[in-house]
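Q: Hi! First time asking for a complex rather than a single chain. Here are the components, and I think there are two in total. Is that enough to go on?
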Amino acid sequence: MTRTVTSRDVARMAGVSQATVSRVLHGSPNIAPETRTRVLAVVEQTGYQPNAAATSMRTRRTATIGVVVGRITNPFYPQMLDALGAELEPHGLRLILWDATTGPGERAAIEAIDQRRIDGLVFTTATASSAALQHAIDRRAPIVLVNRVVEGQPCDQVDSANEDTARRIARYFADNGHTRVGLITASTDASTAAARSAGFADEAADLGLHLDDRHVVDGGFSHEGGRAALERILDAGIDPPTAVFAVNDLSGLGALDAARAAGVAVPDDLWVVGYDDIEMASWEAFQLTTARQPIPEMVRVSVELLLARIAAPTRAAVHHRLPGEIVVRRSTAHAPVRG
Amino acid sequence: MTRTVTSRDVARMAGVSQATVSRVLHGSPNIAPETRTRVLAVVEQTGYQPNAAATSMRTRRTATIGVVVGRITNPFYPQMLDALGAELEPHGLRLILWDATTGPGERAAIEAIDQRRIDGLVFTTATASSAALQHAIDRRAPIVLVNRVVEGQPCDQVDSANEDTARRIARYFADNGHTRVGLITASTDASTAAARSAGFADEAADLGLHLDDRHVVDGGFSHEGGRAALERILDAGIDPPTAVFAVNDLSGLGALDAARAAGVAVPDDLWVVGYDDIEMASWEAFQLTTARQPIPEMVRVSVELLLARIAAPTRAAVHHRLPGEIVVRRSTAHAPVRG
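A: Yes, that's all I need. Here is the structure of the assembled complex.
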């Protein structure tokens, strides 16, 4: 049996004070990046585990962060949870999960903050119409919105450049000779769907692409919905589009399956592009071109903002927007993205 | 605004006492099924929400159940979590999640029981070698194992008939004229993989099917691993099998993708069968024949056992085994299962 590694050991090995170790592990904002990196390297190397209960007693905190996800059966959210767990661990923080689609969800999560059972809350599926979110914002509870955001709200928010990247997808279609395009959208209550749909439709209009109203169909962010949406687009009774953008990968994969079932050749007769770059997009059966959301980076920034918010509740709110990246695969004939 | 529904209202509408409402919502074991159904129907109809904090104060419980999952990016686990959330909600119980693959995982979950931060714990990925699990069992902590089990341990366990169902898959292959078969297995530390592999291999031997050692390959329960495993099977330098069983769907989908990439026609030249019936198995691109695990039923029984265990810590441990069902799809030419 080896002796348990203490905070004092970590401090000595990293050449810093115990207070600095504690500040790094609590995510205090005013730590030099080199110091933070050095301390975390020693923490990893020694396997040092801060005692959560003791820490909680000292700081009157719970060392627990809550996360609200929606539709956990959409693989995008498990990928984000995986990244969150990995990001919280070196801070000695636990994660509690609420599913907004089953049960009391958002409201229960907000109650948990009110009752100080958690230190802060990460929303991955916020919508403008959420009363629970509004309550949290009004009370200045320590929260951060990631992925879905609500414009104009005074809380920390992190998303990726949904509108710009969707515009780039429309340009990608135009650059490669497509003139008739389609759009598989989703409930516009979500900022992601709204921004991606608007960006694509606006840029298509600017470029003179033909986006017929009958070729804009709600795919409900699901495989089943995406499949039904492409079926409707193909059955609309007018010339079908030669390129379709689906606002998330699950509905894009559904569209590919609809094309497969209908005998429409992808990419020869139809290009399909999704959004998110979930693991299945790269599978041989699909090889779906998509816009990659930088999940690890989004999660890293969110956790940083949340810990800083817990430390300094009155700091002004910020909105970080990270760039997206188009990953080209077989569903668009491996044609490169220009510019 | 409507008046808040109280426990007294629910009792009156269901024609039972308030104590009975409370016992139903706490999952007490000695409630007649009709009574339980009637109370839960009224709870659903009225939207009654027991106050978790007040309940916790009265009963000295946290109204929170922990769940340990592994590899949450395997869609099987989100499907199980979804079912767990839906099952716990009418009991007024929250769910905390630990991921056994990142961070302190199992150990942190056990600490949470020791510190009474949760009332009980559901393990979905238990293995015989887990020290944390052994500690929980030794201390008679309120836990239940679901999906993966550890034979002979004195704790409540729920699984499905993995070995029997895998035997049926071998018979299904034999009944349809296959004589050379393959097996994509996974780390045998998991009871599920071990039981499925053993059942299939034993029945294949009993039936005189040829299962060459070079056609038994570890697919690591993942799409990537299943893909690599089928590639190895096809490249083994001997006559390839005409039917392959993969011990979970993710590796079965990987095998289908390997066949697709190699130009091997499924089902004409190769049959593939998976296990679990995750959502993707039914997608057009795959149409994977598989053994369905009865997730909602497994979760229902697990929650029932866990709540009964919390109420009566010394009750003898039970092991529930639910039947599996083979769901036939295109990857086995829609050939029906006999007997």
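A: DSSP finds twelve helices and twelve strands in chain B. Let me know if you'd like any chain examined more closely.
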